[in-house]
Amino acid sequence: MTGMSTVHDPAVLSDASEALALYERMLLIRRFEDTVQSLFQKGHVHGTTHLCSGQEAVPVGVAAALGPDDRVAGTYRGHGHAIALGVDPQGLLDEMLGRATGVCGGRAGSMNVIDLEHRLIGCFGIIGGSIGAATGAAVALQRTGGVAVAFFGDGTTNQGYIHECLNFAKVRALPAVYVCENNLYGEFTPWEQVTAGKIPERIAAYGIPVMTIDGNDVWAVQAAAGEAIDRARRGEGPSFVEALTYRFVGHSRSDPGNYRKPGELAAWRERDPLKIARGSLTELFGIAAERLDEIVAQVDGHIEVLIARALAAPLPDPDTPAREYRD
Ligand SMILES: Cc1ncc(C[n+]2csc(CCOP(=O)(O)OP(=O)(O)O)c2C)c(N)n1
Ligand SMILES: [Mg+2]
What we know:
- This protein is of the alpha/beta class.
- 45% of the residues lie in helices and 12% in strands.
- The protein contains 12 helices and 8 strands.
- The strands form 2 sheets. A 6-stranded parallel β-sheet has the order 2-1-3-4-8-7, with helices on both faces. The chain has a two-stranded antiparallel sheet with strand order 5-6.
- It is globular.
- It binds thiamine diphosphate and magnesium ion (MG).
- Thiamine diphosphate (TPP) binds next to strand 3 and strand 5.
């Protein structure tokens, strides 16, 4: 983790209730993912799922730095991207179950959620799709105001078009922020086996500022994203954030994660973003463990309601066309 900075910027971490809200949002994502996994195992979720458990601090920290005119493109590991942006978790869970009440009318499933109302221009099953979409959105936002953010993984930095997009974004000084969720693996392959050089060094070759940060510390993410977003708003062009993180679950539904190095998962669990946030909340704001446990109980109760409603929700009528999206 050379060059990684952990930032507890006092300007970012000055408000206890905002800090608690970020903890709660991460917890909601974790419980949501546990729920999707369990409903998948019971046969209620069709297709596949890619869960982001362990990586919650990245989308939540980035979303905390965004403004109302900004836009985000996420990935197939996108439930956290959506919830972080404020997508209704009921609509999202209904979507997982293919229900008519889903955020995309039950037609998108787990991998392709879109919710323009909440600034989510799409989640993309094609790796790197988010990079192209966010770069395109940045072209539009350069005229209308706002910043576009792309989330993508470490493996995606070996896709050809990330380089086309970064080059274009730099040359045109686009208001774009590229957020690489480096979780050490692309599917079942350690990133270093398939990646020449270091990701930050490659990106720096475009003259794009790069920050490598602790992606499990939500406030370090918020601070770095804030810096990158401010730079884009000032018209100073794109930035790249490499957030170092780890997924606690397999790549997708059927992956037991046997390729992990011995002790690796346990070591990262010690660095669980929820644990880190709890530590900071107690240390910096004196928030008692009991208060944090109350939030856990509230989120658990909320999830029970979401599950009951999603299971009772109607399936889409095959004769009714899916909703059309216009921005
Ligand atoms: C263009 C394309 N090629 C291959 C795939 C198959 N695929 C799905 S996920 C994945 C690995 C991506 O790894 P990474 O970018 O590190 O993201 P992570 O899944 O770790 O979040 C691959 C190769 C795909 N979806 N799209
Ligand atoms: Mg990866």
